[in-house]
Every structure is written in C-alpha cells, then in structure tokens.
Amino acid sequence: MGNSLNIVILSSDRYPDGGASANRHLAYSKGLCELGNSVTFILLGQQKDNKPAFEIDGIKFIGTFKKNPFSELFKNHGSLISVPSIPEGRIQLKKLIKKGKVDLVIVLDTHLWMLLPFLNLCKRHGTKVLHERTEYPQVALKRGLAGRFHYYLYRRFFLSRINGLFVISNALKRFFDEQVENKIPVQIINMMVDPSRFSISDGKSEVGFRYIAYCGSMDIAKDGVDILIRAFGKALRMIRQPNDLRLLLIGSIPDNHLMKKYQQIIKESQCEDRVVFTGSVSRESIPQLLQGAEALALARPESKQAEGGFPTKLGEYLATGKPVVITNTGEISVFLQDGINAFIVNPGNVDSFVDKLILLFDDYPKAKEIGQKGKELVYNEFNYYTQAKRLNDFIGSILNTKR
Length: 403
Hints:
The protein is of the alpha/beta class. The chain has helices at residues 20-34, 70-73, 78-82, 86-98, 112-124, 137-140, 144-159, 170-179, 220-223, 225-236, 256-268, 286-291, 304-308, 312-319, 332-335, 350-362, 364-380, 384-399; strands at residues 6-11, 38-43, 53-56, 59-63, 104-107, 128-133, 164-167, 186-188, 211-215, 246-250, 275-279, 295-298, 324-327, 343-345. The protein is built from 18 helices and 14 strands. Strands 3-4-2-1-5-6-7-8 form an eight-stranded mixed beta sheet, with helices on both faces. Helix 1 crosses helix 18 (384-399) and helix 4 packs parallel to helix 5 (112-124).
C-alpha cells in the first residue's frame, strides 16, 4: 500500500495505562504510524487525567469523556460509563470525516450500544469500518438470555454491516468465519509486543531481592494466581538454593475479599513473607519490574477465554529474555516449545508447575538460554512492526474492495 492513510480508532479503553488490551492497541498503532500512516484515537472512556488531546509515539488521542452522574453509579461497568461520550465522539469523528481526514475507522468496543452509532455515521459517509475481537463474545457479554439477545442483535445489525474483522487467534478466526458466513474477511493479527520497551541495559532488579514475577489481572478464574501461589510455596521447599527468592505479583486487587482469599492461600502454602503484592503499577514501571525478575510465570487455567484469546503479557514476558513458565492453553503450543523457548506446564496442575520451577532454578544457566530463545521468537514473530505490516496490508485490501 503506497499511500499513507488516515486511520481513526474508537475506544473506551485507557491509555497508556489500560493494561494488556491498551498495550496491544498502542503497539500496532505505533507500527501503522511507522509505516507512514496517521493514527488518531477518539477516546470514549475516562482517562487518567482526562486531557482533551495528547500524543504517544506519534499517535494522536482526542478525549471526549466528561464526568457525569452515571460515572459513580456504573463505575464497575466501563461500557455504560462511556455511553454519554458517544454524542461527543460522533461530533469528533464527523469533523474529521468532513475534513477528509478519515480513510478507515477501527472500532474496538464489544457492546452494540457503543458500536452502532459510529457504524451508522460511517455508513452514511461511505467510510469503511474494521472491528477487532480478541475474545469469544460469550466472554465479554453477560450470561443467560440477556447475553444471547445482545449477541443476536450485535451479529444481525453490526457484524453483517462492517467491512472486515481482525482477531488474535486461529480459534477466533474459525468462530467468526462461521458467524459472518464468510461474507466479510477475517484476518489474524497475532499477539504482539514492542521490544524497545524492554531494551533495558542492565535489567537489574531495583526491588532488593530475587523474585519470580507475574503481571496482570489478579482474577483467579482468568490467570490462576491461586495456582501460582500454591506452586511457588511448594517449589520453595524443593529448590536446592531458594535463598531470598520471592513471588512478586504485579497488579491491583479489586476488593478486600479477594485479598483475604490470597492471604489464606499464602498461609496454607507456607510462604508468608515470600509473596509481595505491588498494587497498581504504571505502564512505564512494568518493563523494569519484569526485566529484573529471575523468571516470569503465568498459570492461566483452561477456560473459554484462554481457548480463544492469546495472552498479551506473554509477549512482554518473552521480550525480557528471562525464562518463562506458562500453562499450555489456547494456541500456546503453536508457537512455544517446552524446553526450547519456554517452560510449558499442564493447566490447572500445581505439581506440574512445581516441577518446571524446580527444573528452571536447579539449572539456571540452561534456563537463561531458553529465555533468550523466547526473546528471539518475539523479535521474529511477535514484533509489533511485523504484525502492524499484516494489519496494514489487510486495511489496504479492505479499501480496495468495493463492498
């Protein structure tokens, strides 16, 4: 695609500290900019300081969120909080369209009420629309009749009218190919990471002790933090020289009830004073914390979410060059090989995780070699620029299609 494009992305996520999804959006947007395109986000969700406009890595951001009575009422339901931003978001998008500064729009939200107003606007002005999905719909939507009805409306009035869809895994591609009956193209844009974020010269820990790190959601069902704690406690008693080794859990815990549950698991696992919770950490601090670890771990259990998704944090783990211990869920085994570029564990199995931790620390020089192989994989396959080129080519094919 020879000509530069004006690409607008609509999102209710937070930038730059929105977590894994925000990191993904920033990574491919940075790549699209480096390929000569202009990328502008119209932000529908509440941001950290609610600036009206800012830039990150050449990407422009326009804020539309205004505090309203719904903010506190629906503070645990981000999509509902963002609803009042839709009129202002439409105004901003319409301004850009009228100025001739929109060649294509990418919509990132999953709820119909966040998507349909912008799709209708784009259709009226002949602007093509892409959509991204990184999870099965049933993961993002409410369960039961309400969720099924929402998805029916989403499929009938949204999926059938967009120009293309990009997803994160083969499983999601198969699912959505069937849902759209092959009437629109579905492209895989895999997990990605910007390796430059992890180009830290010494990689030494500023924490003051040796540690295994986990970073992400503290939700038990999603990432199996409970399994990780139990495995760590058991491994401590079996590793030949554990010394001051600790488990560093990076991320905020949503409520006191969950914290009490973890404290009980820590006590049962006999690793009190060995597990450290950091709380919420800025995006800028994450690379140093991961780079300073002896090893990085993810004990994600089997679930519908794990089956269809692909953990963005895995790319960040691998980019450090440190040994990675991860459960074999979803499509992990398509890219990673046990003992070659990662330590692969049976999901939901504490003892399997323990065995890999012992293997890792009892021959750490070998584990470091495996970590370096994982880093090579990131630079070759999961590099943000490689994935951005695929997305760029996909956008070009959409714009050259009459539909």
